[in-house]
Structure formats: C-alpha cells, structure tokens
Amino acid sequence: MKIINVGASVTASNDRDAALLREELRAKGQLMVNLMSAPGSGKTTLLSRLIKDMPEVKIAVMEADIESAVDAERIEALGAQAVQVHTDGMCHMDAGMTRASLEALEDDGAKLIFLENVGNLICPAEYDTGAGLDMMILSVPEGDDKPLKYPLMFEKSNALVITKTDALPYFRFDVELCAARARKLNPAIRVFPVSAKTGDGMAELEDWLRGKLAAWQAGAAKEA
Ligand SMILES: Nc1nc2c(ncn2[C@@H]2O[C@H](COP(=O)(O)OP(=O)(O)OP(=O)(O)O)[C@@H](O)[C@H]2O)c(=O)[nH]1
Ligand SMILES: [Mg+2]
Question: Scanning 1, 140, 162, 213, which has its CA 20 to 30 A from the CA of 119?
C-alpha cells in the first residue's frame, strides 16, 4: 500500500503562483494587502474607516465570503470599487483565486488593494495570496490568548491590528500581554491598537500603510 502526501506539492505550486502575482503587482505599483481575522472581528468596519480617512489614496477592495454580497455593498456605498468573491464553500483564498478576483476589478487607478479574506483564524494563514502585506485583526472580545492558540496567522502577519479597544472596559483583555505574545511568535510584527468605531489609534495605522505603499512603489520604480 502506497501512501503519498500531495499537500506539499499543492503548497509549493501556490507559493510559485503567489510570488509571480506579487511581482506583477509590484511592477504596476499596486500594493495588495491581505486582511485576515476570525468572523466578525471588524475587517469591513476597519476598511470602511480607512477609505473615509485616506481620501488621497485610491483604494479598491475584494471581499471574499462564502455567501452574500453585504460586505461589497458596504464598501461600494462609500464610493470605493469593490468586488464580491464567493469561495464556493472554501475557508481561505489562494493565489489563483486572488488572481481571478483581481481580474474582476476594473483598473480605476487604485494603488492600494485590500483582500478581505474569509473570516477564519486558521486556513487563510496557510495560503500565500500574492499580497505584498499580510495584516490581521484580533478584536478585544476574542481574548488576548489567541496568539497562543492560533499561532500561524500571527507568525505570518506584518501587522496585528487589535481592534474594538473602545470595548476594553467590558472585557478582560491585556493589550500589552497580547502584543508580547504576538512578538514572541514574530518579533517583526507591528501592533496597532485601534477602535474603528471611535477612530482611536487609526492615524498610526494609516501612516504605516502610507509608508508601506510609498516604499512598495519606490521599490518598483528602482527596478524599472
Ligand atoms: N465597538 C466596536 N464594534 C466594532 C468595531 N469594529 C467593528 N465593530 C462591530 O463588530 C461587528 C462585526 O464587524 P464587521 O466589520 O462586519 O466584521 P468582519 O470581520 O468584516 O466580519 P465578517 O466579514 O463577517 O468576517 C459589527 O457589529 C461592527 O459594528 C469597533 O472598533 N468597536
Ligand atoms: Mg466583513
């Protein structure tokens, strides 16, 4: 009886597709940000706030969900281009699915493109989407122990946004302890405590994103 594990070859082929996609986007000066979190952590609310707060940066959004178009409708209502992506039951996006989603976006000059990944703290971290930045959200009601229980997403993310800080009085959540747990897994991770509801802490996150976009585009210009 032969038993073979084909998981590694699927991952390797996805990694190649993702690397190619990333270079194509870089050549066009487009920074794609893969936004991951558990369901309901506040991804669409955070994106809505970024679109309102950063009018000088043209933003487009790909909303990946198993069903419905409610998130894309929320983004379009703000005047930004959005495409709703249905994953046919899958709990993550891979590089091929992301390329197909990007092709559905019209080229309206957007330089910052967010992929709101499927709400799930586990599977999305396992697949490289081709994004230039990986960003995750952990919200205060979820608890500060999540880096201990779901380490992979914290290891893979460039930034951790701790959101719903306006709810800190009602939950046992130690922001410093959570940040320390995340940094133990990933010393380079940037941590941004914010409330997308009140706007608290959003300016720091927005400045970081502006800096990352400028660096991404400068890298592309240098290579051209
Ligand atoms: N108090 C508070 N509530 C928030 C904040 N951000 C989001 N919420 C609420 O959290 C709930 C879920 O927010 P969404 O932005 O839809 O979350 P999501 O991660 O996009 O959800 P899915 O796409 O379904 O995974 C909504 O009721 C929001 O109003 C925040 O900063 N503070
Ligand atoms: Mg959403």
Answer: 213
